[in-house]
Amino acid sequence: NYPFVHRNIDLKAPSFFQRKKWRVAAVIHPKWEYADAYAKKDFFDYVKKVAGLKNVSLHEKKLPLEFSRAHEIHDVIYNKTLSYYFADEYKKKHLVSKVLSGLIHDGQNISADTYRKALAAQVELREKLKSMFRDYDIILTLSTSGQAPKFPNPVDKQDSCLIWNLCGVPAMNVPVFRGPQGLPFGLQVV
């Protein structure tokens, strides 16, 4: 009934999606201390529901402390890269915002050796993550520390989103939770 679907296409899901038991890791990350109490409670309530599903094998895991350096490693790589690619724009101050200008300035002060060490640390974290979760299909954790902060004085709290990005693994935020002011915050599905 769908003219745009070729008749010879096999519409069955790949075998990966037909597994009898999904292996799920509920992850506590090194920035967990920044998460609001209501966010942690909502997360663990959700994890209990997932653990109760008959086709799920769920285990709680904690990322090692070395992952707490992810933000620092990312900043070195990101700022150094910005300083390289936006060097011409930086010379013309009117072309970049104050925030971008600050990041580029910071990047210019990062040595090549520090940059190479950050790249090596990124690879180490990626390999560590890969070895820790090779037996899991899905990782669940909080996307943020809670709902978006109120303006005019927002406080940016560190979360785990950057870890997944830095390690090059696919991740998706699913806004399944609501904070005290009714604002959404999410579950990170990796």
Secondary-structure blueprint:
Layout: E1 22-28, H1 37-51, E2 56-62, H2 70-85, H3 87-91, H4 98-108, H5 112-132, E3 138-142, H6 161-167, E4 172-178, E5 184-189
Parallel strand pairs: 1-2, 1-3
Antiparallel strand pairs: 3-5, 4-5
Helix pairs in contact: 2-4, 2-5
Descriptive notes:
It is a single chain. With 190 residues, the chain is α/β, with parallel strands linked by helices. Helix 2 packs across helix 4 (98-108) and helix 2 (70-85) packs across helix 5. It contains six helices and five strands. The longest helix is centred in the middle third of the chain and has 21 residues, at 112-132.
A few lines on this structure:
With 190 residues, this protein is of the alpha/beta class. It has helices at 37-51, 70-85, 87-91, 98-108, 112-132, 161-167; strands at residues 22-28, 56-62, 138-142, 172-178, 184-189.
What labels would you give this structure?
5-stranded mixed sheet, 190 residues, alpha/beta, 39% helix, 17% strand, 5 strands
Q: Which word captures the global form?
A: globular
Task: Find the structural class using helix and strand composition.
Answer: alpha/beta
Fraction in beta strands: 15-25%
Q: How would you spell out the order of helices and strands?
A: EHEHHHHEHEE
Alpha carbon gyration radius: 21 Å
What is the topology, as strand order, of the major beta sheet?
2-1-3-5-4
Distance between the termini: 35 Å
Number of helices: 6
Mean pLDDT equals: 87
Helix content class: 25-40%
User: How would a crystallographer describe the biggest sheet?
Assistant: 5 strands, mixed
Give the uncertain stretches in residue-range form. Answer: 1-7
Number of strands: 5
